[in-house]
Amino acid sequence: MIRYFSNIWQSITTLLIGLRITLVHLAKARKGIVTLQYPEERWPRPERNIGFSHDSYNVIRSRLHVDIDDCIGCLKCVRACPVDCIHIKTVKVEKGTDILEANHIGITSNGTQKRLLLTRFDIDMSECCYCNLCVYPCPEDCIFMTGGPNSSKQEIDYEFSEYNRSDLIYRFAKVPKDQVEKYTPPPKEKVKIDVAG
Amino acid sequence: MGIETSTLDRSAIHGEEMVLNIGPQHPSTHGVLRLQVLTDGEIVTKITPYIGYLHRCFEKHCENVTYEQVIPYTDRCDYVASMNNNFGYAVAMEELMGIEVPEKVHHIRVIVAELNRIASHHLAIGTFGLDVGAFTPFLYCFRDRERILDLFELLCGARLLYNYIWVGGVSHDFPIGFVEKVYEFLDYFEPKIQEYNDLLTFNKIFIERTADVGVLPADVAISYGVSGPNLRGSGVKWDLRKNEPYSIYNKFEFDIPIGTGAMGTVGDCWDRYYVRIRELEESVKITRQALDQMPREGDVHAALPKKIRPPKGHVYSRTETPRGDLGFYIISDGKPKPFRLKLRSPAFTALSCIDEIARGWMIADVIAILGSLDIVLGEIDR
Amino acid sequence: MELLLQKFSEVSFLSGIPSALLFVFAATLIAVSLFMFVAVNAIVAVYAERKISAFMQDRLGPMGQGVGLHAGKWGLLQTVADAIKLLIKEDIIPSLADRKLFILAPFILFIGAFIVFVGIPFNQHILVADFNIGVFYIIAMSSIGVIGIILAGYGSNNKWALYGAMRSAAQIISYEIPLALSLLTVIMLVGSLKMQDIIIAQHGLIWGILPNWFIFNNPFTFIAFFIFFISGVAEVNRTPFDLPEAESELVAGFHTEYSGMRWAFFFLAEYANMFIVAAMSAILFLGGWQSPIPGYMDSPAWGLFWFMGKAIFLIFVMMWFRWTFPRLRTDQLMQMCWKYFLPISFINILGVGLWDLWLN
Amino acid sequence: MTEDPSADGWHYVIAHMDYREIVDYINRNFNELYSPDTREEPAAVLRVSPKDWTELAYFLRDDENLVFDSMMCITGIDYGIEDENLGVAYNLHSMTHHHKLEVRIDVPKSKPMIPSVEKIWRMADWFEREIYDMYGITFEGHRDHRRILLPEDWVGFPLRKDYEFPETWHGIVVPKIKEEWE
User: Fold this and answer.
1) Rounded to whole angstroms, how far apart are CA atoms C348 and C186?
2) Which helix (H) or strand (E) holds A116?
């Protein structure tokens, strides 16, 4: 019998405590709301300050971008990628020369002389797992995820959905399509490197 | 145990048992899980779990990528506690290779792992509330969990799948101002636990729904390999952070909350739930200590060769994730890719005992028991 | 109704029309306006529920901003948009469903809610029919809805729906009893089943401060009010008693297979039922359209205001319940009814009788 | 046992027996049946042949000096295409004595049969099913011997090193390597 009434008493008190909490939240609705009204308000970009001057500490995980003029075609990012979403094809050219009709600049911004012409540099963003692993080994800091310390180069952009899946394949190589053949040597000579294949 | 059914004269009722499929599409299976349930009216007489809907060949994948590249895949196993999974893998690899990591790395790892534990328990508490029908605590939990995810976004740029703890260190140091932000969060968060308690934990309806329901006795729990908060809910004082300290957990003062049967029997749903609530407090404690003791200067990566090639051998190492013992069995043949990598996931064993503890209860209780076990299907199916 | 017919007979250009036709016309007019009321009630209540729940959960709820198609300022047009969406949605009937019952069910549920409105006095004059058996009529009619729920569950040939329907049947029939028993206390005090009589009996003040509402009449009616209200919440399947549609267990309960407008009828009926329970509690225990300070603000317009105010407050309380509490289990629900509410209701009846004898 | 785990405060418990002591203790009860592994702990394993396993498993669990009441993990191993053996590694742990043991059982690929310990450690139930699923090792005496992660009608055992990925599954083409995008 005591249990019967204590049950009733417990129910009433604990339920009232619960009701009080929700009522307080309702009353303080103006202050406590955490909703972000998305298309108008954007998520504030976290203020990141890694504390190092060098640009390799790029910690924002948005879409991948390649400064193709700086790429030397070393394939380190291809090897680092756990999901094989980076595909690179290169052709050997004379070291350090600019080939203007193929948009090839011989020297990177770090001063490294390029010896390979990139005929293909594709990243399939629909396969990317945003692990950031390709960013770290890059010797020229030319592949990075947009935003962060490199935001002067690329705006941060979280919304890059496409209607067509093939639009998510980002093609960075600047060699015009009709000229790829011209720079591709015959396969016998075995200069073509295709790791991703 | 169970609902009393013997009062009915069974022979007089020409009822038959009905097969009910809870899932694969169901609001409260916490993923893609199918429970084939044999019901007699509302009462469940047999449960057969069918898993594998989320199987994505984690172990086969790992045999084809290098040791560094496994880390993004471990993220995706227990996707609500990725830091802890990274941590477990890193600990296993360091044991296999015999690496000593710098003091600062240990602290950083403990801080992020405990923060992620808080986030994961938030999800567990919130969805458990949702399973028994309370909607509001779920959103309160998500509100606070979001703050941790913001912290992690600040830390490593990702909100859910971090790839932050690496073999031999962490990917990079704390950003400037991060430590203050963590303190700020802890100060904000501590009073919120009382709010959950008032709103859900000591709510009479909630107690009615969870106390005495789905009792998991200690010996059954151990036999089933149930671990983590589920095991502690059964009254076993067992926590790897205390009993087999890895990293630097032996430097911190904290308690292991265990189920006491305060509202019903030891090992019921309420105990499992309340252990998680109490663990929030303990995690806050650990995080504070780690933040206080953390050396501010120092390297965040042990000296490692460019390509990780562990010596031939094997290791079984386990760490305490929010869901329990996460074991990694790694066999190395001296090549840069693992020869065999087995992940022993805590949710896998927790789910395997569902038939044992949920038989004889009602459909609504099965949902509650499933919620109290706090399973993550990404980890069960791997 | 009589009033409307009377007014019609006074209008000169309608004098040539036979009275039977006038009656049909009047009835249609009333039915349409009641339907409008129910629909508007649902739209407003859905909006209110979404906003209240959002604020309780630190969210904003439906909001509209920016250019183009959006839900208006503060999302005011959200429910309208929802209604349009439901109207133009594809109507899906499962191939193995019992077609006739499946189609019939939402309408039975809705009619059960709808015809109750005939007996509800909104103020001194707005009342379709003041039956001698007003309270009895409302209690009887509001139970029709359960047939609709059972048909929906049975007809859709879905296990979840069947579970929802069976739970609902057990629940609604059980909670009718404490509901009716606590209602009896009021009838004992009034001595009439007529709605207006019940309201008029609550005129005046007790001890010079409190309005003479039945909730304050004596301690037993005070308890009876809560039993009545909570049983009412259980009758309309709201959390913590929303077992028939428990979304985390039974997917969506009895309306799992419904979509589009048929589903909207379930929704409409739910909110209509909510209004009925709130209105009945207001009429029986909170003085209906009586002003809290007798003699002041007592005109029919104020009467409507007071009545709606009380009803809306009680609807708010139901929403407040819903967004605070977990859900009970089936056996606990039954236990609560038969072990707690029923004995207390009996004691209440005894207590009210003794109180009445002793004091009056 | 060095400290009562139920006592409050700090309890970092040291293992009751190490690997060598455990093997010696088992050998005393089993007629020197097992030869200890020469490797250092924790890599040392106890190699057991399938026919001894059930008896030893009961002994490991029930002996009061061992009490391996908790099975931590069961791992299936394929030693390679050339190797003719499949292996199963059982990682045992004692919640009361806090010591560990790894038991390794090797079976030939031609006849992969191991007695089940599902009744001894309930946890082995799903793990053995998983190993059957992935390696095709049959566990005799398992009460519910089905595939667990893969569909019931899956052909082959994917974690074997010589596993070949199927071209199609129920008529659905399995993409092997991604086609060239161009």
Assistant:
1) 11
2) strand A116-124
B175/A131 Cβ within 8 A: no
Nearest in space to B81 (alpha carbons), one of B55, B119, B33: B119
Out of A17, A47, A129, closest to residue B198 by CB: A17
CA distance B146 to B349: 29
Q: Among candidates B87, B363, B128, B134, which has minimal Cα distance to B248?
A: B87
Residues A51, B175: C-beta atoms closer than 8 Å: yes
B213 assigned to some structural domain: yes
Q: Are C160 and C256 in contact (CB under 8 A)?
A: yes
Q: What sign does the dihedral B222-B226-B231-B237 (CA atoms) show?
A: positive
Search chain A and give the residue with CA nearest D178: A197
Inter-chain Cβ pairs, chain A and chain B, closer than 8 A: 84
**Among B residues 175-194, those touching chain A with beta carbons less than 8 Å apart:** 175-177
D181/A87 CB distance under 8 A = yes
Would the CB atoms of D177 and A197 count as touching at under 8 Å?
yes
pLDDT, average across residues B87-110: 87
Which token pair is C18?
A: 């036979």
Structural domains counted in chain B: 1
User: Is B65 within 8 Å of B55 (Cβ atoms)?
Assistant: no
State which residues of chain D have pLDDT below 50: 1-12, 182
Task: Say yes or no for a CB contact (<8 Å) between B243 and D5.
Answer: yes
Nearest residue of chain B to residue A50 (CA atoms): B175
* Distance of residue C346 Cα from the nearest chain A Cα, in angstroms: 16
CA distance A117 to chain D (A): 19
**Domain of B75?**
68-303
CATH number at B99 reads 1.10.645.10
Across the interface, which of B68, B136, B153 has its CB nearest the CB of A133?
B68
Residues of chain C with pLDDT under 50: none
B321 CA: distance to closest CA in chain A (Å): 21
* B118 in any annotated domain: yes
* B12 Cβ under 8 Å from any chain A Cβ: no
Quote the pTM value.
0.86
User: Please, are residues B81 and B321 in contact by the beta-carbon 8 Å criterion?
Assistant: yes
Nearest CA in chain A to C53: A26
Tell me the chain D residues in contact with residue A87 when contact means C-beta distances shorter than 8 Å. 181
Decide: C324 and C318 in contact? Cβ < 8 Å.
no
**B185: which residues sit within 8 A by CB, 6+ positions away?**
B147, B148, B151
Rounded CA-CA distance C235/C229 in Å is 10
Q: Two tokens at A82?
A: 């756990």
Taking only the tens place, the pLDDT of each residue in A102-118 is 677 777 777 777 777 78
Retrieve residue B275's tokens. Answer: 């252990």
**Inter-chain contact A49–B175, Cβ cutoff 8 Å?**
yes
Q: How far is C324 from chain B (nearest CA, A)?
A: 6
Task: For residue D173, give the DSSP letter.
Answer: E
Give residue B360's pLDDT band: very low, low, confident or very high (50, 70, 90): confident
Of C289, C295, C120, C139, the C-alpha closest to C199 is C289
Residues forming beta bridges with residue B170, ordered by sequence position: B165
Give the amino acid at B359: R
- Tell me the two tokens of residue C181: 């028993």
What one-letter code names the amino acid at C174? S
Task: Please check whether residue B264 lies inside any domain of the structure.
Answer: yes
Q: Which residues of C touch B143 (CB under 8 A)?
A: 58
B with A: touching (≥3 Cβ pairs within 8 Å):
yes
Q: Is D2 on the interface with B (CB under 8 A)?
A: no
CA B15, CA B38: separation in Å to the nearest integer?
A: 13
Q: What is the pLDDT of residues B248-257, one digit of tens each?
A: 888 888 888 8
Q: How many residues does chain A have?
A: 197
- Cis status, amide bond into B336, omega within 30 of 0: no
pLDDT of residue A86: 86
* CA–CA distance, A113 with D14 (Å, rounded to integer): 59
The whole-chain average pLDDT of chain B stands at 84
